[in-house]
User: What shape does this take?
Amino acid sequence: MTVNIHMHLVHRQHTDGKKIVEVQGDTVGRALADLVLQYPAMEKELFDKKGRLHGHIEIYLNAESAFPGELKKPVQPGDDIQIVTFLAGG
Assistant: This one.
């Protein structure tokens, strides 16, 4: 099933500038895995060495936080996943 992933501005450098990437998957985790298959550089951006989401990454499903258990959340065709990155700086 096709799901849309809305890319945070800082990640678009890894998706050839695409704001939205169409992926396949029946859960958020499988959808993100398909994103990584299409754009391998996204793996380091999203996941630590144990395959967990980095602490500065927040996942929203249809504009609602998917926390907790975001990778296991089921998705339906046409759903929207938003990747939000918390940035620090001054």
User: Anything to note?
Assistant: The first strand starts at residue 2 and ends at 6. Residues 2-85 form a domain with the Ubiquitin-like (UB roll) fold (CATH 3.10.20.30).
